[in-house]
Write a structure and sequence with these properties.
By secondary structure, the protein is mostly beta strands. Helix content is 7%, strand content 39%. A hairpin with a 6-residue loop joins strand 2 (15-16) and strand 3 (23-24). Bound molecules: thymidine-5'-diphosphate.
């Protein structure tokens, strides 16, 4: 049976190779499974720090390691999967109602996030048990 986690996937982005340096781009309607309403990035993450530890009710995201590497653990309440992001030309698509943990940030790494909506604390589950309860009750829209 297909799980919610199966909707989360690596999206390959164009890579224009050049001796002067490489270039990657994203275009709405072509590489993006949603319209971008917000961009944010994590940087200066101290060794051993963990980010994430929440799920979103409605938000869709693309997570890109534009520099360095880190691990993104995804959990749909039943299945867990870890993605090691270390390529600026690959994005991890995360659909709604997925619990995520980000860890093992390399020194100097930068985590770029493209998001489908503006920031809203109401869109968060920050308590894992409350998230699981909502998943069990299927209270929220399941992915795409
Ligand atoms: P949070 O989403 O918990 O960070 P992460 O998942 O990357 O560890 O957000 C951390 C804090 O920053 C929290 O107080 C909310 C605030 N914040 C904003 O104000 N706007 C944003 O776009 C984001 C992502 C967070």
């Amino acid at each position: 049976m297909k799980s919610l986690l199966d909707l989360c996937r690596i999206v390959d982005l164009p890579k224009i190779q050049d001796t002067r340096g490489n270039l990657t781009f994203l275009e709405g309607g072509r590489h993006m499974p949603f319209d971008i309403r917000r961009v944010y990035y994590l940087y200066d993450v101290p060794g051993g720090a963990e980010r994430g530890a929440h799920a979103h009710k409605d938000l869709r995201q693309l997570i890109i390691s534009v520099s360095g590497s880190f691990d993104v653990g995804l959990d749909d309440g039943i299945t867990r999967r870890t993605f090691h992001l270390n390529r600026p030309y690959q994005a991890l698509y995360v659909c709604p109602m997925i619990w995520r943990d980000l860890e093992n940030f390399s020194s100097g790494s930068v985590c770029l996030v493209l998001a489908s909506n503006a920031y809203s604390e109401d869109d968060y589950f920050r308590d894992y048990e409350a998230y699981l309860e909502a998943r069990r009750a299927s209270l929220y829209f399941e992915g795409e």
